[in-house]
């Protein structure tokens, strides 16, 4: 099981935010056992500066009965209610207010956490205290998938985007599932391989973006080096999208992360590499066209859950490495291993 301190680093890199010493201190000082407590601490530390500075304001259209004309006159309600003889009119007025989607999501998430029995009492009290600092004009509806999807489509500033990420993960893994009679989801999402695979991939990619300057980091769609009798048939080929591509004038590395319980699988009583993963990486390499003088390489990276692997091959003329990363070690060791993985050997 990944230590919570390591999970915190992975989440921070995945969501492009530097780890905060205060959160790490809280993780070490408090006997946390589940990611729920860690995510709650992350939300508290991310939301406090937002509330201190003041939640972002935006205009919201509200209908008001006015004795003086303001905003836009709403004829149907004005006539229907017989307001004109009384010298009044229904007006639609744009008001500047903190009652915005992110503020409602934050308030709703804090309200849900404050009443969550799975959360320790002391932490629930902290959540309640922070919730009381949310402006009274901001309601606290229960978070919904629709509200989260709407916010994900917006280009939020970094600090607000981080709050959204934490609220999203809390909604997905810890808060009561809708229409499920209070059933909880993955309270410890470290066992959810699909979710952790996304976090691991994003964390590794963003780690290289932030912590080294030798390579340009990106994901790319590789075009099949294929022809077809019918050009339309080419559209049937599956998309080849790399997890992470690292490129310098001298090297191009295609790095695929795989979050699996083991990098090897038994076959005929012998451990073997996972064939589809190797075939996928081989296809990427065979359909790449590196720049002149640029060496092309491939790496498959797994967490070292059951065994350490570091195998090197030459496949189709390209160096290929299958390696594991020990996520149980302290973060400085993980960072050093990641940098060593792409250093010039």
Task: Briefly summarize what is shown.
The protein has 345 residues and is an alpha+beta fold. 39% of the residues lie in helices and 20% in strands. Strand 9 and strand 10 (270-273) form a beta hairpin.
Notes on the structure:
- The protein contains eleven helices and 13 strands.
- Helices cover 39% and strands 20% of the residues.
- A six-stranded mixed sheet has the order 4-7-8-11-13-12, sandwiched between helices.
- Helix 1 (4-14) packs across helix 9 (193-211), helix 5 packs antiparallel against helix 6 and helix 5 crosses helix 8 (158-173).
- The chain is an alpha+beta fold.
- The longest helix is centred in the first third of the chain and has 19 residues, at 35-53.
- The protein has three domains: 4-56 and 101-191, no CATH class; 58-97, no CATH class; 203-341, Trna Endonuclease, Chain: A, domain 1, CATH 3.40.1350.
- The mean pLDDT is 89.
- Pfam families: McrBC.
- One of its GO terms (biological process) is DNA restriction-modification system.
Number of domains: 3
Tell me the strand order in the biggest sheet.
4-7-8-11-13-12
How are helices and strands ordered from N to C?
A: HHHEEHEHHHHHEEEEEEEHEEEH
Strand content: 15-25%
* Span of the ends, CA to CA: 31 Å
Structural class: alpha+beta
In the predicted model, the low-confidence regions spanning at least 5 consecutive residues are none
Query: Over the alpha carbons, how many angstroms does the gyration radius reach?
Result: 26 Å
Would you tell me the overall average pLDDT?
A: 89
List the total number of helices.
11
Overall helicity? 25-40%
What about the largest sheet? 6 strands, mixed
Global morphology: globular
How many beta strands in the DSSP annotation?
13
């Amino acid at each position: 099981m990944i230590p919570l301190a390591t999970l915190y680093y992975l989440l921070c890199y995945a969501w492009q935010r530097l780890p905060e010493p205060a959160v790490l201190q809280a993780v070490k000082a408090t006997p946390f056992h589940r990611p729920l407590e860690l995510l709650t601490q992350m939300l508290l530390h991310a939301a406090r500066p937002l509330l201190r500075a003041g939640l972002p304001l935006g205009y919201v259209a509200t209908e008001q009965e006015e004795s003086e004309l303001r905003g836009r006159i709403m004829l149907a309600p004005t006539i229907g209610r017989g307001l004109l003889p009384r010298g009044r009119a229904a007006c639609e007025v744009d008001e500047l207010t903190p009652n915005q989607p992110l503020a409602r999501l934050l308030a709703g998430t804090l309200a849900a956490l404050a009443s969550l029995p799975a959360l320790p009492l002391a932490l629930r009290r902290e959540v309640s205290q922070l919730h009381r600092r949310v402006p009274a004009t901001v309601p606290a509806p229960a978070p919904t998938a629709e509200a989260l999807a709407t916010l994900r489509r917006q280009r939020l500033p970094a600090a607000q985007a981080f709050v959204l990420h934490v609220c999203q993960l809390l909604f997905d893994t810890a808060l009561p599932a809708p229409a499920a009679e209070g059933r909880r989801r993955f309270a410890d999402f470290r066992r959810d391989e699909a979710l952790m695979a996304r976090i691991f991939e994003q964390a590794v990619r963003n780690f290289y973006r932030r912590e080294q300057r030798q390579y340009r980091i990106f994901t790319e769609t590789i075009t099949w080096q294929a022809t077809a009798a019918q050009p339309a048939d080419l559209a049937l080929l599956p998309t080849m999208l790399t997890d992470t591509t690292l490129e310098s004038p001298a090297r191009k590395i295609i790095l695929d992360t795989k979050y699996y319980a083991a990098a090897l699988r038994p076959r005929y009583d012998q451990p073997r590499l996972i064939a589809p993963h190797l075939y996928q990486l081989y296809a990427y390499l065979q359909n790449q066209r590196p720049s002149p003088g640029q060496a092309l390489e491939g790496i498959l990276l797994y967490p070292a859950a059951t065994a350490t692997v570091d195998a090197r091959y030459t496949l189709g003329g390209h160096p290929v490495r299958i390696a594991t990363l020990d996520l149980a070690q302290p973060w400085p060791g993980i960072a050093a291993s990641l940098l060593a993985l792409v250093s010039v050997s």
